[in-house]
Design brief:
The chain has 10 helices and 8 strands. It is an alpha/beta fold. It folds into 2 domains: about 150 residues, Rossmann fold; about 90 residues, Orthogonal Bundle (N-(1-d-carboxylethyl)-l-norvaline Dehydrogenase, domain 2). Strands 3-2-1-4-5-6-7-8 form an 8-stranded mixed sheet, sandwiched between helices.
Length: about 250
């Protein structure tokens, strides 16, 4: 199958590489992208193609990018008249997901969400949550690869909810660890804090350089917490909890 991917970031490039490994012809759009994106795309075996051709000849589109760009990409793809399989693999709130689906109204829409690291063959699995009427078809694209598709619902929204639930726990825990290290540093008790790593629930407190390590992803995780806040609001839960943690990533960015 001919597939267009937007964009070859840390996750998108590896999802696309697995599609190449499965025998698909995968294209990307180099215009406006960074040298790092170009390097990742080349390493993944992607074919650089102008936007009109990439979308116009694609049978499927995979959108995996920072959440703040997802709806804009859907709008551009929809305006190009795309009517194939559209896989929206970003951590979006119900509102943003509806906007993306409406933007590609002629396409067959599949909601998706990735849980785990990029699929590079490590010990931690990469679960690709999928929901929608064509979820099984989308799952088949990664057959025999390092990606483990999981169909979690018949309607769009279920996959995003599965991804958001885990992201809230996993990245929320990281945000709390950042705050803990910052507080300990202010009072000169970082060593006392890291000593607690021996406890079963305190693995995140092992390395006091964690805040600096997470600075490189804060620009992307911040907008993800905006989406998480709206997702919690939509479910009648405490969206302000995610808004508070969002400030951790704002200050690290």
């Amino acid at each position: 199958m001919r597939i267009a991917v937007f964009h070859p970031g840390a996750m998108g490039s590896q999802l696309a590489a697995q599609l190449v490994a499965a025998g698909h012809e995968v294209h990307w759009v180099p215009e406006g992208r960074s040298p790092d994106s170009t390097a990742r795309a080349e390493a993944a075996g992607l074919i650089g193609t102008p936007f009109a051709e990439a979308v116009g000849q694609a049978e499927a589109v995979l959108c995996s990018c920072a959440p703040q760009g997802a709806v804009d990409i859907a709008v551009q793809v929809g305006q190009a008249g795309f009517d194939g399989l559209y896989i929206e693999a970003n951590p979006l709130s119900p509102k943003s997901l509806r906007e993306a689906q409406e933007a590609v109204s002629r396409a067959t829409f599949v909601d998706a969400g990735v849980i785990g690291p990029p699929p590079t063959g490590g010990s931690s699995p990469t679960h690709l949550m999928l929901s929608g009427g064509a979820a099984e078809q989308a799952a088949g694209l990664w057959a025999g690869t390092a990606v483990t598709p999981m169909v979690v619902g018949e309607q769009p929204g279920a996959a995003s909810a599965a991804k958001s639930s885990y992201a809230l726990y996993n990245k929320g825990k990281a945000a709390l660890a950042v705050l803990a290290f910052q507080l300990a540093e202010k009072h000169g008790v970082t060593e006392a804090l890291t000593a607690q790593q021996v406890r079963g629930d305190a693995g995140s407190l092992k390395d006091p350089s964690l805040p600096e390590q997470l600075r490189r992803v804060a620009w992307r995780w911040g907008p993800e917490f905006d989406e998480l806040a709206e997702t919690l609001d939509d479910a009648g839960l405490e969206g302000d909890a995610a808004r508070g943690l969002r400030q951790v990533w704002t200050k690290l960015s």
